[in-house]
Amino acid sequence: MLIIFYNIAIFFYGLGIRIYSLFNQKAVKWITGRKNLFETLKKEKFNNTIWFHCASVGEFEQGLPLLNILRTQYQGATFLVTFFSPSGYEFAVKRYANFLIYYLPIDTKKNAIQFIETIRPQAVFFIKYEFWFHYLTQLRNRNIPSYLVSGIFRKEQIFFTRYGSMHRQMLRCFAYIFVQNNESEQLLNGIDIKNVSVLGDTRFDRVAEIQQAVFEDEIITDFTAQQNLFIAGSVWKSDEDTLKKIIQLLPQDWKILIAPHEINTYSTTWLNEDVEYY
Asked: Going by C-beta distance under 8 Å and a sequence separation of 6 or more, which residues neighbour residue 60?
């Protein structure tokens, strides 16, 4: 019975995106990016495919250290990266031409079967979030190992409720689950999921990796004028109170750079008039 409601929800989600695309450019990209997707995929050459799926930019950056390690170990394999959101897709496709990068088709049984049969994955890695019932069950049915990497769980999530049986079934599709903290491991153990290890947060590995790379940006250089710079990235409205407190503690000669998660719709009314943002 739950799967019926799930399929209905997926249908209306897709319908809602189409309606929303009449007013929102990001929704337009979500739709057009999936147009003729299977026809395009069939033209690719897949060989021992290792598939990474990420919701958006943050999850991609989180999975990148593992992806790079696997690329050195399996140099003859095809590495496919899929995204759910346009922001993640557009970020990766501009910077990582050495990967195959596509949108993930919406989670219907038909799409899941066709997608998996087209790319023929040997292993699949879902980064942090993204639990899609049909994809996970089809992978399990084909004995294709899938792994959740950098997962993090909280007791209020649906997995741990009395009506979360279908979501618990999704978790049991994973060959192994790597979580960020002990609390997540204990929560999963509490619903009899034992194939879990605490791996930590791979974002720290990525941040350390980025820190070693040379980065130059003319706009930022001109803006800072050799002064100290405080950067807040992927900012949401819910972050504003915390940022206010931090900004108040900074010395007056510091520059502040705010990078909103959605820059086109972000309001800066909470900032004082001396603060600039990009």
From this structure: 54, 81, 83, 88, 91, 92, 127
What's the pLDDT tens digit per position in 85-118?
998 899 898 888 888 999 999 999 999 999 999 9
Q: In the chain, where do the E strands start and end?
A: 49-54, 79-83, 100-103, 121-127, 146-151, 176-179, 196-198, 229-235, 255-260
Residues 57-93: tens digit of each pLDDT: 889 988 998 999 999 999 889 999 999 999 889 989 8
> Nearest to residue 21, comparing CAs of 36, 35, 7, 40?
35
Cα 80 to chain centroid, rounded: 14
DSSP state string for 203-217 = HHHHHHHHHHS----
The dihedral through the CA atoms of 2, 7, 9, 10 has a sign that is positive
Task: Indicate the burial class of 64 (C-beta count within 10 angstroms; 0-12, 13-18, 19 or more).
Answer: buried
Q: Give this prediction's pTM.
A: 0.78
Q: What is the pLDDT of residue 240?
A: 83
**Position 233, amino acid:** G
**How many alpha carbons fall within 13 Å on the CB side of residue 196?**
24
pLDDT in tens, 180-231: 999 999 999 999 999 999 987 665 555 555 555 666 778 888 788 788 888 8
Element (H, E) at 130: none
